[in-house]
Structures are given as structure tokens and as C-alpha cells.
Amino acid sequence: MFYFEYPLIAHLETPQVACHLNANQARKMRYLITLNLQPPNNSLNYVKQLDGIKDLEIDEDYGLVLISPKRDLYVIRVSGDIDSQKLMAIQPLIKGVHGDMKIAPTESQQEEDK
Question: Rounded to whole angstroms, how far apart are CA atoms 22 and 114?
Fold first, then answer.
């Protein structure tokens, strides 16, 4: 099993990023949700039934990823329109909500690489 001991999730919900998204892109945005899960509750089936999370579209192919075994921190990826403050208030196991945007080179950068 792979895990990451260091924070690798950048918080991308900045005004600069948000101003470049249209309404459809914002609704379809993906998020990474960090959860503190103690064994034996460290399974995707357990996460799916949690208040606040059970109403979200969970990326099952991404799964439940262990990022800090010492702190029992896991990440899931979800899609949808999320109010992170409200979600964290509903579900105390959530320790963070971060935008998961696809990052790719710009067209001009791709042309320079040719």
C-alpha cells in the first residue's frame, strides 16, 4: 500500500482560480476530502455512509487513500458543488477539503516544448 507522510495537497480554492471557472465547471469540480479514520472504520464503505459525505458523488476508482498512518489520515475524491465549511461542521471526521483541479501545460508551453 502506498502512503504519503508529507502534505502533498495544495489548496487551490483561491479567487484567481475561481474567476477562471464558469458555472458548469464549478459545479463539476472535484475535491479531495481529508478524513481522520480510526480502525476498524478505515474503509470506503464506512465513509460512504457518513453524514455529509453520503450525499456526494465519491470517485470509487480513486478509493480511500492513506496519506498519514501515524495520524490515521485518509483522502477520498468527490465531485459536486461543496460548501467546505458546512461539510466540516456536519462531519467532524473531515479535517480538510481541497480543490482537486487537473493541472496541465498551457498551449503556448506545449508549443515551446516541440
Answer: 30
Residue ranges in 1-114 assigned as alpha helix (H): 15-18, 23-27, 44-48, 84-90, 107-113
Q: Contact at 8 Å (CB) between 32 and 77? A: yes
Rounded to the nearest 10 degrees, how much is the dihedral formed by the CA atoms of 34, 35, 39, 41? Answer: -120
Residue 42 C-beta-side C-alpha neighbours within 13 Å:
16
Show the cell assigned to 84: 467546505
pLDDT per residue as tens digits for the range 25-73: 445 789 999 999 999 999 999 999 999 999 899 999 999 999 999 999 9
Q: Are 93 and 74 in contact (CB under 8 A)?
A: no
Residue 51, CA atoms < 13 Å, CB-side half-sphere: 7
